[in-house]
Design a protein that fits this description.
The chain has about 425 residues and is an alpha+beta fold. The protein has 3 domains: about 5-180, no CATH class; about 235-305; about 315-435, Aminopeptidase. The chain has helices at about 5-15, 25-30, 185-190, 205-210, 215-220, 225-235, 240, 245-250, 260-270, 280, 285-305, 305-325, 345-355, 410-420, 420-435, and strands spanning about 35-40, 45, 55, 65, 75, 85-95, 100-115, 120-130, 135-140, 160, 180, 330-335, 340, 370-380, 380-390, 395-400. The strands form 3 sheets. The protein has a 6-stranded mixed β-sheet, with helices on both faces. The protein has a 5-stranded mixed β-sheet with strand order 3-2-1-5-4, with no helix packed on it. Strands 12-13-14-15-16 form a 5-stranded antiparallel β-sheet, with helices on both faces. Strand 7 (about 100-115) and strand 8 (about 120-130) form a beta hairpin.
């Protein structure tokens, strides 16, 4: 889009004055961000990094990794016998210009072929401009709207300023595999605790949070990295709501084994009007045991005292739930004997919670606008409940009986992940109808 506001025009002008990505950075990326690949073809190992080929020591020799006899590189073996191979990875250059902190995202492609040296190409696909207040504006190239992949870049398109709501796009949260080691950051970021590591958090997310969010600053300065990572990556900002309880955990050096369960547990304490500033309650010795105990207790109270009211609420909530999620109704997919379908009725949330002994109904997940809930079943019996974040288009959690993983967890997770594009296509269809 064309820049309209003063800040947009300033960013576009500054972007044009940025020095291009140097060959030195390209060379660094080629050496550090890509794996070394090999393939077993026609009885020979082929190194796709240096082009060397050799016969294995024995006919039965096959491994996920092997060492090239020529370049001595540790090769990860391709599982397929083909001619051409391609790998795409992201790297980033962190720098600053004027009063802006800049994160430049580079998409690099490695083309490989047996008996040949690899070829590389590098394109800067995004620039995140962060002002001292932590506000982010992004310039990026266009993507192919007909592709299921959200990062199918049109490399020939120019870098254009994007609207503020671009931060809701999964492209915005692309996390580079490596960072160019010569970082340049604003002095205020060093004051707020940033040193050199991003702790597996997308740099634009971490840096902007450190400039505008005191919670992120506190978690980083106290080196509570697991809390920080969960806080910045969680689609639901419950850490801020439970900040007093979080500080108690930090003070007591309490290790939370499962952040999602801990947040649900705090919500249950709040529902029972317990003191969530009490370290004894906030830091239970057995988190899952206490969580399950409160869930069961709440379910019993709801059934005994509010059964009639609950039915009335279900009928009322059903109308709102159907209005918000009706475009997803009927969505169902199966594989390997597993059937995954959308929960279409609020009463199904109650049945699901009763069967699997978790809090999908008790904590009113049907009221979460950003969440879409699925039931994974085998022979029509609930096995796991899946929550999908609609804004991030990823699986937020996948819980079985008493919030534990079932023996089918990997198969369920994989099947759900393969079919996320169906959810995305229905969302696009609804937006198109609204337009």
């Amino acid at each position: 889009m064309k820049p309209h506001t003063a800040i947009e025009k300033q960013i576009v002008a500054l972007s044009e004055s940025l020095a291009p990505i140097t060959p030195e950075i390209h060379s660094w990326a080629e050496k550090t961000i890509f794996l070394k690949w090999g393939v077993l073809s026609r009885g020979k190992f082929h190194c796709l990094d240096c082009g060397n080929a050799w016969k294995p020591e024995s006919e039965k020799q096959s491994a996920k990794f092997t060492a090239c006899l020529a370049c001595k590189g540790k090769l990860k073996m391709h599982g397929c016998n083909q001619v051409h191979f391609k790998e795409i990875e992201y790297s980033a250059v962190v720098t600053c210009l004027s009063d802006f902190q800049i994160v430049r995202i580079i998409c690099s492609t490695k083309q490989m072929k047996k008996n040949c040296l690899p070829s590389y190409s590098h394109t800067e696909v995004m620039q995140h401009w962060i002002n001292p207040k932590g506000e982010v504006r992004t310039m990026s190239r266009s993507t192919n709207v007909f592709s299921h992949a959200y990062d199918a870049w049109q490399y020939y398109s120019p870098l254009e300023i994007r609207p503020k709501d671009f931060q809701n796009s999964p492209k915005y949260r692309i996390n580079p595999y490596r960072f160019y080691p010569r970082l340049k950051v604003l002095p205020v970021l060093k004051r707020n605790g940033f040193k050199t590591s991003f702790y597996e958090v997308a740099p634009q997310v971490l840096l902007s949070s450190l400039l505008k969010d005191h919670c992120a600053e506190t978690l980083l300065k106290t080196r509570q990295i697991s809390w920080l990572r969960y806080y910045l990556e969680s689609p639901h900002q419950h850490v801020l709501r439970n900040w007093q309880a979080v500080k108690i955990c930090l003070k007591k050096n309490y290790t939370v084994s499962d952040f999602g369960i801990w947040e649900d547990y705090i919500e249950l304490l709040r529902w029972f009007k317990k003191d969530i500033t009490s370290a004894l309650l906030v830091c239970p010795a057995d988190l899952h045991l206490e969580h399950d105990r409160l869930v069961e207790k709440k379910q019993q109270l709801l059934r005994k005292k509010y059964l009639v009211k609950m039915r009335a609420e279900i009928e009322k909530a059903q109308g709102l739930y159907a209005e918000e999620k009706k475009q997803f109704f009927g969505l169902c997919f199966s594989g390997a004997g597993i059937t995954i379908s959308v929960l279409e009725n609020v009463s199904e949330f109650m049945t699901e919670g009763d069967s699997l002994r978790h809090c999908v109904f008790t904590n009113e997940y049907f009221k979460k606008i950003d969440s879409l809930l699925f039931s994974a079943r085998i022979d029509n019996k609930p096995i796991e409940t899946i929550e999908v974040s609609l804004s991030k288009m990823e699986i937020a959690q996948c819980r079985g009986l008493r919030n534990h993983n079932s023996k089918h967890h990997k198969a369920i997770f994989s099947l759900m992940k393969k079919n996320l594009y169906q959810i995305r296509s229905r969302m696009k269809k609804k937006k198109a109808e609204q337009c």
